[in-house]
Design brief:
By secondary structure, the chain is an alpha/beta fold. The chain has two domains: 299 residues, TIM Barrel, CATH 3.20.20.370; 34 residues. Strands 1, 2, 3, 4, 5, 8, 9, 10 and 11 form a nine-stranded parallel sheet that branches. Helix 5 packs antiparallel against helix 6, helix 9 packs across helix 10 and helix 11 runs parallel beside helix 12. The radius of gyration is 20 Å and the shape is globular. The N and C termini lie close together (9 Å).
Amino acid sequence: MNMHHLLHQDPEIWDLFTRKEEYSNPRRDPYDRFPYYACRDLNIFEPRASQYLITHGYSCDYPDNAPFAVCLTHDIDRVYTSLHTKRQSALRSLKRGRPLQSFHSIARMRSKKLPLCNFSDIMGLEEKYGATSTFFFLAEKPGEQAYTYTIEDLEPEIGRIIDHGGEVGLHGGHTAYLDAQEMKEKKERLEKVTCKPVKGYRNHYLRFRVPDTWECLSSAGFQYDTTFGYADCFGFRNGMCHPFRPFNLTTNRTIDIQEIPLTVMDRTMDQPYMGLDSRKWEAIKMLVDRIAACNGVFTVLWHNVSMEGENLKLYEKILRYCHDRKAWMTNGEGISQFFLDKTDTYLS
């Protein structure tokens, strides 16, 4: 019996898994996202669909007998520090009586890339814990809403990511989530820089519409997506903490795209969303422990601009905790290929 047939035996779980309510509920936030607060079922912190699968014999034999997996990802929204930001940094340093730091801030005004082209630092940190990750890059053109950098300018940095064993995926712009042709064009543009197929996708601002975005991704030729989560709350949007193939209730067919559901995004924990403040680690640990109990995948989105201060410390704490629990920590392509290669028929 495959995954869809099994889940369909429980109508409540099936409706949750397929996100049936999103087909008819018109509520959207300003970014056309279906928000967590609009859900009828607010029990988002339990991976109920995956728990249902586990009780019916589903399991994953991860490399090195790891009890669960971690999918590490980074959305690269910005790689240049704006001149305004650099000026503000210099002024703050002067007001705090730190003239040397202010001098360095002024000197950095001549450099476009510092400090946000920190990909090597990120990979170095993850390597300490035996991990690798996916970097999702925009491939926008000047004048497009999400444009902040020219992807061709980053060819050396992207080459280093790939040479280091990391993955490069596409970060779709504001309108791509409903436009298969735009997805395909941006995919091809990024592939000219990577010189290899781009398999993974995540949309900017987590813009996503069920089931249309999945259909667009399938048409555009992607292997997997990892957009599917809420911007305003972390957890399990359709009760899954395992990769799955979505089911279109309108066409009554499986969609040919693999979804690696997003568990937690760094910005979700802050205002104006959850506002967890000092409770962030306890909430993350709860999610990790529940996923580990399901032999599932903990998918993390940590922006490159969050790799400083307390956010950097929290990211390393996640790496350390999962490493100590013997998790398999890899990138989206690694997770995707593992599940595609799995012979367990529940994945069909």
